[in-house]
Amino acid sequence: MCYRHQTEIPLFMKVGLFIPCYVDQFYPQVGKATFRLLQHFGMQVSVPLQQTCCGQPMANSGFECESVKTLQHQFSLFADCEYIVAPSASCIMHIREMGEKDYLSPEDKAIAHRFLDFTEFMHRFKLIDQYEGQSQAKVVLHKSCHGLRGMGLGQCSESMTPADNLQLELLKKVEGIQMITPNRADECCGFGGTFAVSEEAISVRMGRDRLQDYISSGAEIITSGDMSCMMHLEGIIKREKLPVKVKHLAEILFESVHLHKKQAQHVASY
């Protein structure tokens, strides 16, 4: 499902930035970091203020047909964009799956497949080759189930075959970053959207187990391409006052670019 192939980036590409509703409400800094990174790489970024939820919570709760109008509203806002980027593999997976449904028009289906996850976009247009950043943080990558198993951003450990992880490749481009390897590399955090509501006790226990693995492995920051997983883990972190922070992948990369620029300016001043 993931668009792994690389292609040259068109000049003056117009990119739409889709901000998931939970990012807009709880983690606006993630949207800002994604926006600034896209601008850093020369994109013309459009952020329609009328955008709303992609409809995934409604569809996952059994009301898929009722969610179509929400999705069609999104399509109308981004119709003139060459690609639409979002810092959420979960939302992109839902949109592209909906793009296969018969009750969407051919025009809507075409727009649905122009939606790309932030990681996909970085790789597809070789922006990873243009990236320069610095950090000294001890970071562990949380591989969300939607990104890993749904979008194919990496290889699952249960497949028993080694493969590159696209998000890990991005992080390894950050000079000086210390990547932490947990004992269980791609275990679910227990969020699962509505699962965290219907099966609260199991969800919390899974989150605690995931955090214990990350903390005992020496991580200071947990990062992911899905802030929904981070929202779940951060809730447990705050309630139990655990010694670890969460940041979206786009935040890590943007902060690292900013630090790299400051270091370069400092060296140039001598």
Automatic annotation (TrEMBL):
Claim: Transmembrane is one of the keywords in the record: no
Top-level taxonomic group: Bacteria
Alphabetized InterPro entries for the sequence: Cys_rich_dom (IPR004017)
One family name in Pfam for this protein: CCG
Assigned keywords, A-Z: Plasmid
Domain Cysteine-rich, chain residue ranges per copy: 15-96, 139-233
Name recorded for this polypeptide: Fe-S oxidoreductase
Annotated source species: Persicobacter psychrovividus
